[in-house]
Amino acid sequence: MAVIHTEQFLKQIQSSYQFTDLEMKRLKYTLKAVSSELIKTLVLSVLFYKLGHLPEFFIGVLVLITIRCNSGGLHMEHFITCLLFTLTFMLLSIIILPSCVPVPYPIKPVILALCILITFLMSPVASKKRPPAAPEAKRRYRNRATGLLLIYAVVIIILKTTPIAEICFWIIVLQTLQLLCAAAAQKGGNNEKIQ
User: Fold this and answer.
1) pLDDT < 70: residue spans in the chain
2) Residue 64 and residue 174: Cα distance in Å, rounded?
3) What are residue 159's DSSP bridge partners?
4) Which of 21, 29, 67, 109 has the fewest Cβ atoms within 10 angstroms?
5) pTM to 2 decimals?
6) Can you give the three-state secondary structure of 92-127, one letter per residue?
């Protein structure tokens, strides 16, 4: 029932504002992505609140979303797989890796520089479900992602070994790894299967 009302509402918007089919595809994709992300963030917020790591979760989400919106990454086909992947990603970044895998401070700038280079060379890697972006838009996304990583890297280096710096460091490393995986899958023609 809700789907029928949504479709009628979108048809009304298209006719009222003379949106093209491509613009409507972009609007539908955006509405679906935003609603999915809001629900996922709410569920994960409750979980991280129960784990006693809600502030760290919000910092991690802020860093991740600003990078990922511009660089892209792996995309899951179903909401539940996306939720589980994000949960695993955030648990690793916020709780597990910072406490179990100490990275010596002098090595962090090298790893961060490598992440920045990989992001510059590989991004953006968008979902196949997303309408294609123009080459100029892709350059803007890539440059924004690279610039953000550079800013975060400077902040991490200044903050040294504080818990926030550790979380941001692991968010960047894991995001870069999934960007590499997404780029490899897309080149291999398997991106549709893992979306």
Assistant:
1) 1-5, 129-132, 188-195
2) 10
3) none
4) 21
5) 0.81
6) HHHHHHHHHCCCCHHHHHHHHHHHHHHHHHHCCECC
